[in-house]
Write a structure and sequence with these properties.
73% helix; two-stranded antiparallel sheet; 448 residues; globular; mainly alpha; 17 helices
């Protein structure tokens, strides 16, 4: 099978929309492991197994989504859905990627607010967290092997890791530096910076779509830039943001906590670079110390809940919105205020994500063959590998080697078993997560 060349026309598989829709539904329930794990799942399913898009297309889309504020994995799913089936495909992929997480986390938030913590819940959380450590670690290796195609890329990844882990350099500065380095490297050292396309691999069987079954399209209609279409999408986005805001203003008044949330999380959606952990640090500073909406303990508990649900970790913001409404009902029933707070936060967080993809993706597609642009973006991808490694180490240390000293041997052993289940036996991540939760629950019952 021949390799794809950057100068070749865009190749998009003829995938029935119903087939893709079933996959997007499944993805929403198995997308555990944070952005690293979710991107790895997308790559394995869409590129390696089903062969719906090529390796180059996947990395090109990933590079763009890495530049955007917000959850890159959800935006990557939206981008791929858009490539396959235009706007309806992007909407289906993006919405279904987060919908299970929205519902599950809302249920968990209600349980947390009403019943508080319990030993059984803590046991399940311990099991979930151990599995997530293994998923993220495996994803770092999987993505790293494919994205770090030269010594120059490895240098960028190491530099990014050192910068964020030891020097605490802000993530946006790391992204900017990596893009500049990639741009300069492509022009001055093209032989060193060249990224070779990985040879695709797919299992035999009816689920694999060979490149021979794809359609060569030099300029697919929906990937062509259109100023009028971009303006229509932008107008639709502004309308979708404005109507709920006006309705809430008329209902509760401009000074209500719900309106404050609407404005704050809208602004946060445009500056949330650096992943969920960086986002939570920014939001916690405002929600805890600025507005006084929630407590620091509630913010930490929300992150733990978000880490054990499918979907992007940025869903922790929905928990913050829920607890903000619960703590500040503003004359409403507490459950009503909390639910509205959660929905407002989710709406304002993800609405810009679709606009970024639908407006920007057609223009990005025209730059697929621009070596300088691709070099800059590949530098960003390499840097993000280092950043993800930092997150994996930080999260792994928090789960296995807590600050109070000692080693949590149960969590460490469970993480190793989860790693073996994924790497050696290729067991689906969903079943591994379920098994981890059950193991934690059993341990709690035995020790009780």
């Amino acid at each position: 099978m021949r390799q794809e060349n950057a100068s070749e026309p865009v190749r998009i598989a003829e995938v029935p929309f119903g087939v893709a829709l079933r996959f997007w539904v499944k993805l929403g329930f198995i997308s555990f492991g944070g952005p690293a794990g979710q991107i790895a799942i997308l790559h394995r399913e869409v590129v390696e197994r089903r062969r719906w898009i090529s390796e180059n297309q996947f990395l090109h889309a990933l590079n763009y989504c890495m530049l955007l504020p917000g959850p890159e994995a959800q935006q990557l799913a939206t981008y791929i859905g858009w490539l396959l089936h235009r706007a309806r495909g992007g909407l289906a992929a993006g919405i279904l990627f987060v919908l299970p997480s929205v519902l599950i986390l809302l249920a968990l938030s209600i349980g947390y607010a009403v019943y508080g913590e319990s030993p059984l819940a803590a046991g399940c959380l311990a099991g979930f967290k151990s599995v997530v450590v293994a998923i993220v670690a495996a994803a770092v290796l999987r993505i790293g092997r494919r994205a770090l195609r030269s010594k120059a890329h490895l240098f960028v990844a190491i530099g990014a890791f050192v910068g964020i882990y030891f020097l605490h350099v802000p993530f946006p500065l790391i992204v900017l530096a990596a893009a500049v380095f990639g741009l300069i490297g492509t022009r001055l050292w093209p032989a060193t910076w060249t990224v070779r396309s990985a040879q695709p691999h797919a299992p035999a069987g009816p689920t694999a779509i060979d490149l021979a079954d794809t359609v060569d399209v030099t300029t697919p209609a929906h990937t062509l830039p259109s100023r009028s279409r971009a303006l229509r999408i932008l107008a639709a986005g502004i309308l979708l943001w404005t109507v709920p805001y006006v309705a809430l203003s008329l209902w509760f008044g401009g000074g209500s906590v719900l309106l404050q949330q609407y404005r704050f999380f809208t602004g946060a959606a445009f500056v949330t670079f650096g992943g969920a952990y960086a986002v939570l640090a920014y939001v916690t500073q405002a929600a805890v110390h600025g507005f006084g909406w929630i407590t620091s303990a509630q913010a930490i508990d929300g992150l733990a809940l978000a880490e054990t649900t499918p979907g992007p970790l940025i869903m922790v913001l929905q928990f913050v919105g829920f607890m903000t409404g619960w703590n500040n009902p503003d004359g409403l029933d507490r459950m009503t205020a909390a639910t509205l707070g959660a929905l407002i936060t989710t709406w304002t967080t993800f609405l810009p994500c679709f606009l970024f993809v639908f407006i920007g993706a057609p223009y990005i597609e025209t730059l697929r063959d621009k070596k300088s642009f691709n070099g800059a973006l590949s530098g960003v991808t390499a840097a993000v590998i280092g950043v993800i490694l930092n997150l994996a180490l930080v999260f792994g240390a928090a789960v296995i080697v807590p600050r109070n000293g000692g080693v949590h041997w149960f969590e460490a052993g469970l993480a190793v078993l989860a790693w073996l289940a994924m790497s050696r036996f290729r067991i689906d991540a969903l079943w591994i997560v379920v098994a981890g939760g059950l193991a934690g629950l059993v341990r709690t019952l035995v020790l009780a």
